[in-house]
Amino acid sequence: MMYPYFHEDLAPFTREDKLCHFAPVPIGVLEMGLRPSAVLVYIKLLNRATLSQKNGWWDQQGWVYVNYSVPHLALELKMGESTIRELLRVLENRELIFRTYPMAGEVSEIYLRVPKTSLDGQKFLPDPAGNPDPLENRALPMDFWRAPSGNLEAI
């Protein structure tokens, strides 16, 4: 069977194929009503976070982080730097990411959060005994509390 749209770099996806070089996207993020460009930035960050996870880039509490500069993200996603900054703020406002505010010339650490329904093998049903969700009370890295001025303030 021939398909009308054929491109030499594309191949049919068959039952024997295994994917490689793809980026994960939690379904819960797609259901949050974010702009497609914000989802694309999140996907890029989450893809990099999976590499950080494999390479042991996490803090003392186990939070995985990525180092991704705004210019680098802009270049890879073919967007302007101001657009990337705006999209990062959107992701921060939705609490999908938290960034540190380093000294001038340093790259911020970006911590990601994922919908609980996306975590493999974990069910987040209310505890019949009334115990709180252990992830809810996990402390955020101290850098989440540091404002650009260096002063500490709550989120």
Descriptive terms for the model:
globular; three-stranded antiparallel sheet; disordered C terminus; 155 residues; mainly alpha; 4 helices
Please give a structural write-up.
- There is one protein chain.
- The chain is mainly alpha-helical and 155 residues long.
- It is 28% helix and 6% strand.
- The protein contains 4 helices and 3 strands, in the order ααβααββ.
- Strands 1-3-2 form a 3-stranded antiparallel sheet.
- Helix 2 crosses helix 4 and helix 3 crosses helix 4.
- The longest helix is centred in the first third of the chain and has 19 residues.
- The radius of gyration is 19 Å and the shape is globular.
- The N and C termini lie far apart (57 Å).
- The C terminus is likely disordered.
Helical run tally: 4
Task: Report on the biggest sheet.
Answer: 3 strands, antiparallel
Order of helices and strands: HHEHHEE
What percentage of the residues does DSSP assign to strands (E)?
5-15%
Report low-confidence residues grouped into runs of 5 or more: 142-155
Outline, from the CA principal axes?
A: globular
* Spatial gap, N to C terminus: 57 Å
- The amount of helix comes to 25-40%
What oligomeric assembly is this protein in? single chain
Task: Evaluate the radius of gyration.
Answer: 19 Å
User: What average pLDDT do the residues reach?
Assistant: 78
Could you give the count of β-strands? Answer: 3
Widest sheet: strand order?
Answer: 1-3-2
Structural class: mainly alpha
